[in-house]
Amino acid sequence: MTVRPEPAEGDAVDEAISREDVAESDLMTRRGKFRAVAFRDGHEHMALVYGTPTAHDNVLVRVHSECMTGDIFGAMRCECGDQLDAALDRIVSEGSGVFVYLRGHEGRGIGLLAKVRTHVLQDEQGLDTLDSATTLGFPIDTRDYRPAAKILKHLRVRSVRLMSNNPDKIRALEANGIAVVERVPLLAPATDHNVGYLTAKRDRLGHDLPQVDTFSSGYSYNRT
Ligand SMILES: [Zn+2]
Fold this sequence. Notes:
binds zinc ion; zinc ion binding; GTP binding; metal-binding; GTP cyclohydrolase II activity; zinc
């Protein structure tokens, strides 16, 4: 018994993930029961499926890049942990959806050690999240979203409502055959700790983060 529904007529049968590279079980969590679909595609990743995935279209989906510091330890210099919580809460409140957790995405793909080294430059030299990476000789973003597209196809999800503020992620999924019919904003509150990070993502990576404007204006208002 798997969470993967039988193919509907007209579905392309996608065998991009072979049997030996996928395993699944029920997973009771504090939010309720998910189907945990572990899969291997380069790294080992996880898709958490909530509800009955009988609908193939307009599925509420989060494609989340691993961030150990934010997701596990609650680091406040980025908003990853807040987004993880908010996305799972939204999936549960809507009654169905898929949360794809992608490994190998630390620091936009540069790895955990490199990410921590960028933190040193950010703290000591005031560089932002992009300049601290390039100063160390790392690319700005090397994340590969193909595993997310593969698992969504495996789950026979054809089109998604994607919880994201990142237009690059939409382009990457669509380039890999997943139609994004709607972008659902996933806005974590700006704080003194993350506003520098959010501002760089807004201004230099084109993320849609309107909460930064509100925070900035409130901040300058308080200073005068
Ligand atoms: Zn993070």
